[in-house]
Specification:
With about 400 residues, the chain is mainly α. About 75% of the residues lie in helices and about 5% in strands. The chain has 17 helices and three strands. It is elongated, with a radius of gyration of 30 Å.
Length: about 400
Amino acid sequence: MPVFEYKGLISGNRSTRGMVDADSVRAAQVKLRAQGIYPTHLAESRTRSAVSEALSRLKLPVRRVPGLDLSLFTNQLSTLIGAGIPLVESLSALTEQIENGQLKAVIGRVRESVNHGSTLADAMAEHPQVFNELYRAMVRAGESAGALELVLTRLSKYIEGQMELRNKVISAMMYPLIMMGMSLVVMGVLLVKVIPTIAGLLDDLNQPLPLPTKLVIAASELVTNWWLPAGATLAFLFLAGTRYIATERGRLVWDRLRLRVPAMGRVVRYVSISRFARTLATLLEGGLNIVLALEISKTVAANSVIGAAIDDAKTAITKGASIAGPLRQSGQFPPMVMHMVAVGEASGELGTMLAKVADTYDELVENSLNRFTALMGPVLLIGVALVVVMVILSTLLPLMNLTAAL
C-alpha cells in the first residue's frame, strides 16, 4: 500500500506533518480528515513505501525487548498523545527514533495496523512477545475510557518500578554468587591438583591413613577419575528437575520450597507481594475491572502458592465476597497487608492502599537484601576457610602421626 507524506493543520490552526497509508491521494485525504487533520500538502513517499513493505514482510524473532526501551517508548508515546498529536503520527515519529531493532519493527507494524483501523490494544495484541497481557489490558482500558495518555504514563512508571526491583534483587545476589563460584574454583584446584600430589607422597610412606585423609583422597579420586559420569548424572538430575518444575504440581512444590528457604524465603515472599500489589494497583487505577485485574496480577506475582491465594480471591469476588477474606485464609499474606486491603475495600480506595503496600514491601525487599548480602559474605568466607583448613589438616595428619612415632 502506498505511503503519503503530508503537511496539514489540526485544531487551533497548529501545523503538523507525518505519513499516512492509503490506496490513493483521495483516500489519504479522507483518512486524514477523519483524524481531524486538514492537509495542505500531500505526496506519495517512495522511500516510506519501501520501508513499510519491508516491515510488513519482516518475520520478527521471538525475543524480549529490554524493559528500559519499552518504558522509554511508553513514556514518549504518552507525551506525544498528551500534546495533541494523533496516534498514527505519534507512532510514526517514534518509529523513526527507536534504536532497538526489535522494538522499531514492532512499532512499525503496530502503526500500520492502527492506520488501517485497528485499536492500539488490538494492534499490540499481535505482538505478545513485546506487549504482555498487563500492557495490552491497560491500553485497552485507557482507549475505552478516553484516558490513554494517563494510562501510558502509569504503565511507564510501572515498568520502571519493576525494573528497579529486579535490578535490586540481581545486584544483591551477585556477590554471594561470585563468592560461591570462587569457592568451587578453590575446591576444584585442591581436589584435582593439590590432593593427588599429596596422595602420591603419602603412598610412598606405606603408613595407614586416618579416616579424614581417606575421605579427602576418595573425594579427589571421584572428581578426577569420575568427573564425566558425575557430570552426566548432575546434568540428568538438573534436566529432570527442570521438567518436573515445568508441571503444575512441580511448580507448586518448588514455589513452596522457595518460600521456606531460610533468609531468602522471606525475600521471595516480599518480592511476590510487592509485584502483586503494584500490578493490581496499576490495573485498578487504569480502569480495569477487579476480576480481570486479579487474573493478570496472579501471573505477575510469579509464585504459584501466592497465585493460588489470589485465584481464590478472584473466585470470591465473583460470588460477591471481599478480597481480604480469601487472602487472609491462605496464610500467605502478612496481617498488615490484609488490614490495608480491607481498609481500601471499605473506603473505595483499594488502588491507593495497594500502592502503599507495594511501596512498603519495596523497602522491605531492599532492607532484607542488604541484610542478606551483609550476612552471606562473611558466612561464605568462613565456610571456604574452614573447608580449606579441614582439607589441609586431613592431608597433614599422616605426616604428623609419622613424626610423633619417630
